[in-house]
From TrEMBL:
It holds the Pfam family AP_endonuc_2. Coiled coil: none annotated. This is TIM barrel protein. InterPro entries: IolE/XylAMocC-like, Xyl_isomerase-like_sf, Xyl_isomerase-like_TIM-brl. Residues 59-286 form the Xylose isomerase-like TIM barrel domain. SUPFAM superfamilies: Xylose isomerase-like. Gene3D superfamilies: Divalent-metal-dependent TIM barrel enzymes (3.20.20.150).
Amino acid sequence: MNRRTFLETSALGLAAGTLTFSTGESWAALPLKAVKQPIGFQSYVLRKEISEDIEGTLKQMKAYGYQHVEMCSPSGYQKFAFAPLVKYSGRELKQIITDAGLACESCHFTLPEMRDNLDDRLDFARQMGLKYFVCSGGLASTTLDEVKAKCAEMNRIGEKIAKAGFTTGYHNHNVEFEKNFDGKVMYDVLMEELNPDFVKMQFQVAVATLGYKAADYFRRYPGRFISAHLQDYDPNDYKKEVVLGQGIVDWKDFFEASKKGGLKVVYVEMESNPGTLKDSVTYLKNL
């Protein structure tokens, strides 16, 4: 078949809603990809590499197949190796990311800087062209009243962030699932107390090691989630992170439920084993 004949045949097939191959297989018969969201990585995992060579590190992640990077606020994360990035304005940092071929729609901010320096951080977010303004934690506490008070504060902050044109997210850690009040897991208290009009959630899949499945929460609280951090663990050793798909998480169920949860993007985050980043994105692209 010459090029012209191929193009004409392809166009006719697509117009009819199917494209037939020499084997008789059609597009309709091909398996659909499970992952509909863009695939990103969390910059915290590579904080040392980024602090030493941000351009080279981002370009390497792009070569692996990542589409997005979720940054950490340099001013809020100075003590976590992000101090070398403080010299960049939001516009300069965005340009570095864009030049590497990546997108950046989300950034982690600490609760203290959201409390004390929100206007400056909103200006940084505007310069970065962000959509999502994610609080990296801090709502957990020892009493139910304290948790409710912190949620009320987060609602007020989230309302101000919403008026500035961004969506606030809250990122959990294991602690929100380890603590409970009268039999109710702290995370469920957060879901009750946080106003979904002002605060969405970013789910940390690491709580699978405690017996909690992200998919269950996506189905229980539809539309409440903007993104997730992805981890997987050795079935024989929950302290050992492994390449996605080689561990305890049912990723097909995760991504099926993610549609109901509302996930817009996913971020691979292997804190203890960054060497899994390359094979993990390959797994997700082939799922």
